[in-house]
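Open question from group meeting: does this chain pack into something compact, or does most of it stay loose? Before anyone orders reagents, we agreed to write out a predicted structure and look at it together. Recording both the input and the output here so the notebook holds the full record.
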Amino acid sequence: MKQVSQLQEYGLFDARVPRYTSYPPANHFAAEGISDLAQDWIAAIPAGCEISLYVHVPFCRRLCWFCACRTQGTQSLDPVRIYVETLLSELRQLRARMPEGVRLSRLHWGGGTPTLLPPDLIMQLAGAIFDAFPLSEQGEFSVEIDPTEIDAPRMAALAAAGMNRASIGVQDFNPDIQAAIGRPQSFQVTAQAVSMIRDHGIESLNADILYGLPHQDNMRMAETVQKLMALSPDRVALYGYAHVPWMSKRQVMIPEQHLPDPRSRLTLFQTARQLFLADGFSEIGIDHFARPNDSLARARNLGRLRRNFQGYTDDRSRILLGLGASSISRFPQGYAQNAPATGAYTALVRAGKLPSTRGHVFSAEDRWRGRMIESLMCHFHIETAEMVRDYGISPSQLTHLYGPIRAKFRNLVRVTPHAFHITQEGRPLTRIIAQQFDAYASGPNSHSQAV
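Structure tokens returned:
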């Protein structure tokens, strides 16, 4: 109870802080000149290097009420086919602007619902991507799979295209909770999808579940976790549901009066966490769990865990290209985001222009602050030697930076000559502590994302 009171004192139950999948967060991106800059950044990609590629498919057959992603509903494949044609056109433009020999270390299809694509579009899109940028020998091709929007032909097409990691969305297995969030998906349907994945030789499986949903309690949370573990995922993301109906209008459909209070949310997370740890999962960062032999767990153990727009990753590429409406690219020089609206994105691509409409150019300060925040989010500490070696910051500067944070958070952080640490007791506050290193946090657009 003492720890809960202390966490409440520091704002765990009411603060709104970024998820820090980028620094600065995307709400601080600006539009000035970003398209020209992105063109220069693409041209500067070194020949023969490895990059990551994210492909955004914004369409869904159904729009789940809890989701705050950039998506749109469709009952027809006509707009999907038109969109894929636009993706292929954007891909050709990217390839024409890049040097020879570029390969993919990671390819990820997200959405939306990528498995809405019929087999012919799956093969066409994957084939065009790999013709432009072959997958490296150790490369990973992952796809987000909606268990209610997959069948044998589409699964066979994904496997034939080279998918070697699948990610399924579960959220919760309780029918009452599913009804409250507009996501009917039985355990049987999910298990059938997992069986298809395994039958096609896909050995790596991710799963996403949510805590903080309406009608959730500890017993229902435990039941969902136990059912999920019966499917033997290699990696689990345990995300907190963010109720932001002012940002995502469909969330007004969710009965707010049945959402768990902040203290109950913490208990739900702890219940799930304890079950995952008891089953042998390793804890990864603030909200992921992985089997000890999973590449994410190995990356954490080697100090190579990173964070990007898909969450935690072991990908070491410095360049992530985003393909499709609203997708974000990261370059060593900064971020570039495509036009969010599908119509605007399509118009720019058809005009032969890069569809980047906003972004951010890194300053020297952005680089070291971003690295500090990423290190806290991944490893709960900042290494003094790294900051001195890679960013030219003196130990005295670090001491000056750490002092007020240590004074504010007392026993929840620890400072030594070698590192700044978040203690085990302070880890629920990781995002709030990381925000202390965010130079943009006091701006007009700060505190825009819910815990």
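Observations to bring back to the group:
The first strand starts at residue 50 and ends at 57.
The radius of gyration is 22 Å.
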